Every structure is written in structure tokens, then in C-alpha cells.
């Protein structure tokens, strides 16, 4: 069943899409914008090495842990209200991040930022598919949103490096303030009012506590993979699994569940989320690993490494904003998605075989171009497939699930691939290899695992593309 659409003038709908994409861009950019600024923040505020991980971890825990809750809340009280609350909270907390005078204030403000990001992004996809009903327009709108989702990480690294070098780390957070201040009144004018579908029913508070605690504990366990002490990490993983298991049982009994289990009967929805988990795990890890390769193997500085990632964003923009919507309309998402995954696997294969004398133009640039093209093909197709069967009353929950899968996949892929790369590097160093070659070997192994993740996603996508046999 296709989601119903909201009647609105064409110009108003496209302005609404601009506001929604601005919110999504702020949320995604702030996942990675601190990556190249961490040394400056750590030195200025006096973070310990372990404490510095919470600059990213606090944001990620709140973001991923609250997406399902925010998505269901949007279904109940109105997606417009939830988006506006998230935008306001994100803008205020960004200002507080920039003003932070000690580690505790910055970590607390980053956590609140994550709450705002979850509120904004959980309802975005549901709002887009209800705003745009005509297939051609919906393909263009989803393409624009996919561009933001796919390129936000590389944009964050680029902006973080340039702004930190030109001004200071404080400004990587201050940049959000004028965007939020301008976007909020425009959002009040152009976002359609929706009162929610079940405003008289209570939100599933026990389910919210279980899923939020489960995802928060799980994400925290993932962020600890890079630290010594495997027993503690394993215990956190067990707690996370128990909480998420309790959430699944709760959803069977709740009158108004956060995640209606009927959604999981959709083969297309479940398959699209499985593909997304594998794809984002490979791609989010790729972004960080590529920057590390350029800085530690090719000896580029932060600004140069950020600029070197620009081709990825350009390729994603060209494909997702112009080419992919037309391809999806003509050939269908089931055809375009596997093609994009094949191109991504090719790009990662090039990175997994980087020679010791690798150069940017001769070796990295072709791989980055393939990855940008592949992601620009795959993400819009995947998002369209994932939301195609969501009903109006469940579009917020489906959107929240999709975004949750993306955040969990990113955290899982990043931490796991970094740990694999570091372990293999240590092994090569212990065997007497020069540091530069040991690092390169570690990164190549991680890129190779990324190839395996994408090929697995391709197999799932091909199964997803097969039409079910008639009963």
C-alpha cells in the first residue's frame, strides 16, 4: 500500500523539502565534523584519551538510541511537531557545544544534540513520501534526501578540517546556529500540519525505555571495541541483547507499539534494512579509513585530506540529484540498486589493493569516484524500496527504523573495521614491517572486509528483487 500524500502547492512542497534536507544535513554532518578537530578539542579542553571518544560517542548514543521512539512519536502527535522540536533543540545545543568550557559541558551538549538529530531525522523520510505522491517527483525528492544522507559524512570531514584550521574548533558547532535560526520560521510556514493518527492513545513508554537502553548500551559497547578490556565490552553486548529482546517481546503485547510487528512481515522493508545495514557499515568505515590512509600513509594534512574527499560528494550529488531518479523511474529500483552495489564493490576492491607507492590521482581518485557513483545509485533506490509499503499511520515508524538501521550500521562498521585494521597493523609491526607499510596492510584488510559486506548486501538485494511466488 502506498503512503497517502498531502495536497500542497508545488513551490511549497519543494521549499518544505529544502527545510527537511537542511535538518538532515546538519544531523549527518555533525557525526563526522569532529573527526579532524578532535586533537584541537582534546588539547583545548583537557580531555583524556578515553574521554575524547565521548565527543562522538555521546552524540551517536542519543542519535541511534532515540530514533525509533522519535519516529513513533511523530506518528502519534504529528511529524511536524517532532521535527520542529528536534530542530530547535539541535540549534540551541549546537550553540552550547561551541561555548563549552570543559569536557562535561561539551559531552552533555553533544548528547542533547543527538536527541535533536534523532527527532529531526526519524520523521524526515515519512514526511517526504507523504508530500510527494507522483512517482517522478517522489524519485527526485528521495534523490535529494539520499544525497544529503550519503554525502553528509564526507562534507563533515571537509568542513571540519577547513573551519578548524581557518578559525577554531568552536566554529564547527556555531555553523549550525544560523542554519537552524533561518530554517525554523521557514519550517513553520511550509511544513504541512499533521495531527497524528492516534493522539488519544499512550506512547509505549516501557518499549521506549527498552529500545533506547538497548541501542544506547549496544552503541556504547561498539565504541569500546577500540579500548582494552574485552570482558566489559562483552558484558555490555549481553545487556544490550537482553534489552532489545525484551523490546521485541513488548512489541507483541503493546496496544500502540513503537515498532508495529506487522512492518516486519514486509519482505521488502526487512530486506531493504538488511541491505542498508551492510552497505552503511562498509561505507561509513570506508570514509574514516580513507582519511587515515591519506594522512598516515600518503602524509596529507587535515585540509588536504578533506579536500581529497570532495569527488565522493560530487559524484553522489550528480547521481542522486539528477541521474538516479530518472533511472529508477525508467528501470525500477530493483534494477538500479544492484548496479550501484556492484560499482561500490569495485571501488572498495581498488582500495583493498592499493600498492605501497600509491598516489592520489593514480590510485585513490578512481576508487573514490566509483564509490561516489555507486552510493549515488544505491541510496535513493534503497530508500524508495524501504518506504514503498509503509502505510500513512506507520510511515514514521518505518522511517525511524530505516534511520536507526543506518546509524547502527555506521557505528558497527566504523568500530569493527578500525579494530581490524589496528590489530593487523600491530601484527605486521611485531613482525618487523615498517610503520607505513604496516598501516597500509591494516587498511587494505579492512577495505577487503568492506568488499565482503557489500557483496553480501548485493546477494540480499538480488533476493529482494525477486517477486514472491503466488500463493
TrEMBL record:
This is Drug resistance transporter, EmrB/QacA subfamily. InterPro entries: EmrB-like, MFS, MFS_dom, MFS_trans_sf. Its main location: membrane. Pfam families: MFS_1. Residues 16-469 form the Major facilitator superfamily (MFS) profile domain. SUPFAM superfamilies: MFS general substrate transporter (SSF103473). One of its GO terms (molecular function) is transmembrane transporter activity. Keywords: Cell membrane, Membrane, Transmembrane, Transmembrane helix, Transport. It is a multi-pass membrane protein. The chain crosses the membrane at residues 51-70, 82-101, 107-132, 144-163, 169-191, 203-223, 229-249, 270-292, 304-323, 335-352, 364-387, 408-425, 445-465. One of its GO terms (cellular component) is plasma membrane. It comes from Saccharomonospora cyanea NA-134. It is found in: Cell membrane.
